[in-house]
Amino acid sequence: MESWAAMKLGSDQMASLESGILKEVRARPGISRVELARVLQIAPSTVGNYVGRLIVEGFLLESRAAESEAGRPPTALRLRPEGGQFIGVDFEARNIMAMAVDFSDRPIKHAHRQIQKSDSVSEVIAKIEQAITEVLPAPRRRLLAIGVAVPGLIDPAAGIAINYKYINQWRNVPLVAPLAERFGVPVYLENNVRSMALAELWFGQGRGLKDWFCLGIRSGIGAGIVTGGQLLRGSDHRAGEVGRWLCPVSRQPAAQFFTPPELPSGGLELQEVASVRAILAAAEQARLKGESVLSAKAAPLVFEDVVRAAGQQDREILAIVEFAAEMLGWAVAQLALALNPSRVILAGPLTLLGDTLLTPLRQRVGEILQASGAGVPLIIHSNMGEYSGAMGAAALAVHEWKPAH
């Protein structure tokens, strides 16, 4: 095989090589030039040349350790935090989250904007731009790239958000071109639940694991699937759209708060009975019924009201949460039968419910998988917080960005 040293590299190839060097240093802080050459299968002299350039450009730091047994002092390479910044934006039907990270992945600043039901597409995009502007570095030239975690279906190659049913008229929305023009840097798109999975893969409870999935539960529901240590996107970026699955909804008492009088023969979509939006709508029905502690509270309810009522052992709210948990448990079990994961990570506001949600969900998963003779994966809540999608979007920008030549 021809070595990199023997090749005359074009600018794209040089950028790719330097990007590969930065990724290895990011994954192995303190790696030496010799180790880097071995991992990348590149001649040490070639590594030396490109590492030298990256140091001059302000992306890498190099320090000398104590002398080795051979008497030659090894060097340790690390990312230079001041090398630049990346911004990640994550949004869904009601909230926009933005986060800036430095060149060593350390969070620096975050911002939050709310989306109103009446907001037009242009108003949502304007709010995304406002959130990005709020976390921009000073000086602005230090911004290197932006990652955007988008709800629903996307076409990353075209830079378009294809469809999302919970934002008015959100169909075939160009995002990459206007944001790249507005901020003057590369912009990369990813589905927002897959972005949550990226955050878990690189920084959270999926780090070092090969086969697992993240179930993101907000206004909609999706799965970010990791197999063989790689994020699964699908042939046209539609992997993980489990929120559209039709659930086998039974007529248990709590179903009255979720289902119409005439239940469709095929069942209801998972996101219509187990999302944050669905649980809030059901809680509102319980409030109007007058048998919940929430009946004394004026509308509109927020999810913290549901969490508080569950903590007070409100009978109606506990029944609603248990119903949603069983529906989620059914979905987790189907995914587990198909994918055989070692771990399932639940992400989104429902994690605020703690074991009130997790216990019945685990029980339902266990019932289904044990009846099938399958093992039950570890099911846990994410501990990355509400900015996990933004963190994953920033990580996407870090991963995709390449030094300019």
Polypeptide structure, described:
This protein has three domains: 4-79, Winged helix-like DNA-binding domain superfamily/Winged helix DNA-binding domain (Arc Repressor Mutant, subunit A), CATH 1.10.10; 83-202 and 388-400, 2-Layer Sandwich (Nucleotidyltransferase, domain 5), CATH 3.30.420; 212-381, ATPase, nucleotide binding domain (Nucleotidyltransferase, domain 5, 2-Layer Sandwich). Helix 2 (33-40) packs across helix 3, helix 6 (192-202) crosses helix 12 (388-400) and helix 8 (276-289) runs antiparallel to helix 10 (315-339). With 405 residues, it is an alpha/beta fold. The chain is built from twelve helices and 17 strands. Mean pLDDT is 92; it is low at 1-7. It has helices spanning 11-27, 33-40, 44-56, 121-134, 176-183, 192-202, 271-274, 276-289, 303-311, 315-339, 355-371, 388-400, and strands at residues 60-64, 75-79, 85-91, 95-102, 107-114, 143-150, 153-155, 160-163, 171-174, 187-191, 212-217, 221-227, 230-232, 246-247, 268-269, 343-347, 378-381. A hairpin with a 3-residue loop joins strand 11 (212-217) and strand 12 (221-227). The two termini are 26 Å apart. The chain is globular and about 70 Å long. Helices cover 38% and strands 21% of the residues. A five-stranded mixed beta sheet has the order 5-4-3-6-10.
